[in-house]
Design goal:
This protein has helices spanning about 5-10, 15-20, 30-40, 55-70, 75-80, 100-110, 115-125, 130-140, 145-150, 155-170, 175-180, 185-205, 215-245, 245-260, 300-305, 355-365, 370-385; strands spanning about 85-90, 265-270, 275-285, 290-295, 315-320, 320-325, 335-340, 345-350. It is an alpha+beta fold and about 400 residues long. It has 2 domains: about 5-205, Helix Hairpins (Orthogonal Bundle); about 235-380, Roll (PH-domain like). Strands 1, 2, 3, 4, 5, 6, 7 and 8 form an 8-stranded mixed β-sheet that branches.
Length: about 400
């Protein structure tokens, strides 16, 4: 699912500023403060119901992604101007497990504990903020208490229904039929579910009391690093299959090409199909477009390490038989697909028109359409000079 669609699903809006409940002009400190306040609301440790744990974890991850975008001047500017979400590997796109999102949170704020959550609950319950949240949920779900239970913090059946009845009497919210005439069977079923999940949460809390998840985080990071290594190995295997060359020799040649003279290199934002944009360093060497994580900028690596500069790209595109599409609605955005896989679209986004035009000009020269035009021009030139069509004089032509 697209990130902004997830924002809509979990927070009821695709507007990142509305999620944090801040203005578009909010400064860095206001963004950080709003993120902390909101993260305490959705923090999974405050959820008692087992059925809500996964939902709370996902909401927490999405909220962290929102902070990643708005706390980065470059990404925030692109979002403000275009509504697009772009990030690099050092922000949320490198956070693949819940523990890694927690680690990001802890770099900004002191590690959360039971006391902090208790303090937050005491300040939140009975506050005007809680009342506002309840009113919004009540209107959003048209009085359906089953849905309100799923999203309301520190849900208590008697307290919540009492608050809603009071708000209805004060004409602050409408008297939805699903609330005022809720079937008794539906209410009893919900209460049984709450009791069951509360007991389950208590047992799980006792089980996990001494588990801080640090070992899981280490394993997740190791697994991610392994997958990055496999990305380049997969590239080698694909090219070996194409050209039937020796594995070790082919790997050496590709590494040499990737670290040799480039036609062009620089940063672009990249995604394929429905994934989110990621910042990458690209090097076009011959007809191979090598891709590096931005913290592995090969130019910097060459500078600092002299001759020992064999950097492994994360992956690469063999620029043969592909078609380029230019987005007329966004001048700095373009994409291409390979004729062998027309359903897979690779999208690119540059921060200025000069960079966009430079990349497009070079890629067009490598594209299938450009090569075909060039070969036809060459064919006509040879025929004009020699009087013979070079394609008609080949051994496989119909003529003798």
């Amino acid at each position: 699912m697209d990130f902004l669609q997830e924002c809509q699903e979990y927070f009821g809006t695709k507007n990142l500023y509305e999620i944090l409940e801040i203005s578009k002009t909010a400064n860095e400190n206001e963004i950080k403060s709003a993120y902390r306040k909101k993260s305490l609301k959705v923090h999974p440790d405050r959820v008692q119901a087992a059925s809500q744990k996964e939902s709370a974890k996902r909401a927490f991850q999405i909220l962290t992604k929102v902070h990643c975008v708005l706390s980065n001047d470059e990404y925030r500017k692109v979002y403000d101007e275009s509504g697009m979400i772009i990030t690099d590997e050092n922000s949320f796109t490198d956070l693949s497990t819940f523990d890694e999102f927690m680690n990001y949170w802890r770099t900004l704020f002191p590690r959360i504990d039971a006391k902090k959550l208790d303090d937050f609950e005491q300040n939140y319950v009975g506050s005007s903020e809680e009342e506002k949240d309840l009113k919004n949920l009540y209107v959003k779900f048209e009085g359906d208490l089953n849905m309100i239970y799923e999203y309301f913090y520190f849900y208590d059946e008697d307290r919540v229904t009492g608050m809603l009845n009071k708000l209805i009497d004060m004409n602050e919210i409408p008297a939805f039929d699903s609330f005022v005439n809720e079937p008794k069977s539906k209410k009893n079923k919900r209460i049984k579910r709450i009791q069951k999940e509360s007991l389950s949460a208590k047992k799980e809390s006792e089980k996990q009391q001494n588990n801080d998840g640090d070992s899981d985080l280490i394993m997740a990071i190791q697994k991610r690093n392994t997958s990055k290594e496999n990305g380049f190995n997969s590239l080698i295997k694909n090219l070996e299959a194409k050209y039937a060359t020796s594995g070790s020799k082919n790997k050496e040649i590709l590494l040499e090409i990737s670290n040799g003279q480039s036609i062009k290199e620089g940063v672009m934002f990249y995604k394929f199909n429905e994934s989110g944009y990621k910042q990458r360093w690209f090097r076009l060497c011959s007809n191979i477009l090598f891709v590096y994580h931005t913290d592995m900028n090969p130019t910097n690596h060459h500078h600092h390490h002299g001759q020992n500069r064999m950097m492994k790209p994360s992956f690469a595109f063999l620029m043969e038989n592909f078609h380029i599409h230019i987005d007329s609605n966004m001048p700095n955005k373009f994409s291409f697909y390979f004729l062998a896989e027309p359903d897979v679209n690779y999208c690119f986004f540059c921060l200025n028109s000069r960079q966009t035009n430079e990349w497009l000009e070079l890629l067009k020269q490598l594209s299938y359409r450009k090569q075909r035009v060039y070969l036809n021009q060459l064919r006509l030139q040879l025929k004009t000079i020699t009087g013979i069509d070079p394609l008609e004089s080949t051994p496989w032509s119909n003529k003798s």
